[in-house]
Amino acid sequence: MAGVEEVGTGAVGVPSSGNTISTVLVVIAMQAEAMPLVQTLQLTEEDEPSVFPKAVPWKKYSGTHEGLSVHIVVPGKDFHLGVDSVGTVPVSMLTYASIVSLHPDLIINAGTAGGFQSKGAAIGDVFVATHFANHDRRIPVPVFDEYGIGTLGATPIPNLVKALALKEGKMSTGNSLDMTPEDEEIIKANDATIKDMEGAAVAYVADLFTVPLIALKAVTDIVDGSKPTVEEFLENMSTAAAALSAMVPRVLKYVSGKKIADL
Ligand code: SAH
């Protein structure tokens, strides 16, 4: 079905409005991933007046950088358990609310990911996602199976990738840090180099609103390696956060004064 295929592989945020990029929304799942970047960019937390409803734990850090209006948003701590609200549901609500209130010209989803060494990933690499797909939405009914995978192409940014010598790879998203044999099979079918818990959800919302999206993911753990994921994740979290807080400002500098079509 050619029509379905076309819908399934559309690129997020294309066509763009053609305006010079002025507002950038940076969506980050974990507070520890966000804080080094908040400090580097010297952003400040604004709670009055808040763009988000009072009830939610979401946080926003804003300021200007390289002539851009930059907002970092995080889903905050789970009300009941006090840990970061990782996964697809909180980040999609946060992305939705942020788009509606901040009208970004560009979204950057920055975070950490597991990487497949068989696909060229190494700890601390910062990857830019070329495609987004899901691996935990198995719906074995014609067409719904494809909806479950939900493949979307990333906004094309060939000049940026070249200028910053970024590694590129396909990303697969699911709501688990570990990987079941079923997940593994679908991740392989998705041809993924990196595996995370939010990317495809941010892409879904960005695509709904035709907002261009760049996903930058620093590798904290090697999925097809010998170390246990959780141990390796914790060991490399600060290295990855540092790599992100170095890379995101370089991306902001590059996009400043440009249009999406220039990237
Ligand atoms: N053990 C961690 C839990 C964080 S959940 C802690 O102590 O805080 C993992 C987060 O990192 C998610 O936001 C996810 O997007 C990303 N991530 C890193 N490695 C991953 C992997 N191998 N699989 C899925 N998500 C991963």
Automatic annotation (TrEMBL):
<dbReference type="InterPro" id="IPR000845">
    <property type="entry name" value="Nucleoside_phosphorylase_d"/>
</dbReference>
<protein>
    <recommendedName>
        <fullName>Nucleoside phosphorylase domain-containing protein</fullName>
    </recommendedName>
</protein>
<dbReference type="InterPro" id="IPR035994">
    <property type="entry name" value="Nucleoside_phosphorylase_sf"/>
</dbReference>
<feature type="domain" description="Nucleoside phosphorylase">
    <location>
        <begin position="24"/>
        <end position="252"/>
    </location>
</feature>
<dbReference type="Pfam" id="PF01048">
    <property type="entry name" value="PNP_UDP_1"/>
</dbReference>
<dbReference type="InterPro" id="IPR044580">
    <property type="entry name" value="MTAN"/>
</dbReference>
